[in-house]
Amino acid sequence: MPDGDCLGSVAALGLSLEVLGKTVTLASPEPLPELYRFLPAADRFLIGSGALSGDYDTFVVLDCSVPDRLGPLRELLERNLMIVSIDHHASSYDFGSCTYIDTGAAATGEIIMDLLDLLGVSPRQEVAVCLYTAIATDTGSFRYQNTTPMTHRRVARLMELGIDVARLNVLLYDQKSLLHLRVLQAALQTLDLSPCGRVAWMSISRETLDSLGALEEHTDGLIDYVRSLKGVEVALFFREMVPGRWKVGLRSKGEVDVQRVAALFHGGGHVRAAGAVLEGEGDRIIKEVVAAVLSALSAG
Amino acid sequence: MPDGDCLGSVAALGLSLEVLGKTVTLASPEPLPELYRFLPAADRFLIGSGALSGDYDTFVVLDCSVPDRLGPLRELLERNLMIVSIDHHASSYDFGSCTYIDTGAAATGEIIMDLLDLLGVSPRQEVAVCLYTAIATDTGSFRYQNTTPMTHRRVARLMELGIDVARLNVLLYDQKSLLHLRVLQAALQTLDLSPCGRVAWMSISRETLDSLGALEEHTDGLIDYVRSLKGVEVALFFREMVPGRWKVGLRSKGEVDVQRVAALFHGGGHVRAAGAVLEGEGDRIIKEVVAAVLSALSAG
């Protein structure tokens, strides 16, 4: 699922390159999540293989750390195109001809904003909406570690272009469906803590999701409720993808490298956010993962 | 209950006046909420009448729009003191000798920051923590309408003083107790919408609160879940204070003046946020208030 930084950056750069007289095709490997359909250029995105029929000379890849994430668009890497990749993830892949990775940037949108300055294009209001979306979503509304003084200064400049930030934030955060809250309620019923209070988890079974008519997107962000608990070092969220197959998300507040815990179950990720897929019965899986986290906690 | 802007502003100004050689007493009408005990000067606050025994020549009142909110500290208004009041609320009371109200400021903390510039005091790191807390909490992490480009520029300056914003935000937002989430779960079970989808509400009974061992502070912010629903214009939250006595909170996204609805039930507030207290049986009260909101919606 493409996120706000990815889609906002792609739309912002695309619309700005058009101002410079370039012919631009916007593309996403997958349909845009409902949440981001308000972006000014949202209806212009070609989806997946729908973008492959064009005749391009340059392929610009934004906020994408591995080729697999390109989905059907990966085919474009094999054509004889100039490849430009811009990203802010430390583990980002070197796509070839022209790769720019700035891990100090809070969002790819920050790099795009600076690039527009270098190109001498002053962002139009609709571009400012895209860049604000990119930066605000990737910094958790300026709460995360990646937020810098320059992040705030860039956003001040975007606001001075006249964007309605309060309205944008309603579009980004106050568009929940009743189903989102029903799924939250069902997940909260399973909330549990280790006796030491440092590991907490919630889960949602296939049966519950089906009975509510809920999709994967309705479970987005539920792990943040677990993480918000005082004293919890590691938060876990278990979702039954298909009967007997569970995806676990792991979040650490810093003491434990959850990527190493996820690796025990053939998963991966980063120090503070990781995931894995496990087969079997829910209760047993939860016990196993919680035990592994507790053992990592006591080892650290 | 004093909020982050009030306590952050008081602590920031107090600590800075000490740098200028003033003798300062920090005071709050009520004990500091658990949430704000991390503030650098939190343990220095004298509470309520505990602050009345001092011999003062100036009484500085911050982020306080009406004298009633001073609680026991109101007595200081009757002494022969210089009264300085600084606030950003439009409806703020004129406390007398020296009142400064800037409704364009997102938080009283913004005014204090500018005042420190005028006084030639460069904020120390602990003052920056207080000012960040004041500004970030009153703008809903820079999401609300009151956020301006200058808000972001001020925060950039505060961050450049070396404060750990990610850690501060964990202290502000990731300190929930298990009880908070149990109360949320119980409230979500009551979530309901009008057939038109424009009014939504949740409630929590005295019996439920007592059975969970929950206090008023555990219901703080629950109305935001109701407001976050797509299509909802007015969000309501009903809390049974004592058996048969309910407090309703009303939040509007702009179409309805909820202060006028609250006034029908002898309550008050602002256009977008209001409240009232009603006596009677829960279901009947909910029906009455919802009907009044629906009628205001169709009239508007």
TrEMBL record, chains A, B:
Top-level taxonomic group: Bacteria
Gene3D superfamilies according to UniProt: 3.10.310.30, inorganic pyrophosphatase (n-terminal core)
Domain DDH per the UniProt entry, residue ranges: 2-135
Molecular function (Gene Ontology), one example: nucleic acid binding
Residue ranges of domain DHHA1 in the record: 220-289
PANTHER family registered for this protein in UniProt: BIFUNCTIONAL OLIGORIBONUCLEASE AND PAP PHOSPHATASE NRNA
UniProt protein name: Bifunctional oligoribonuclease/PAP phosphatase NrnA
Protein source organism: Desulfofundulus thermobenzoicus
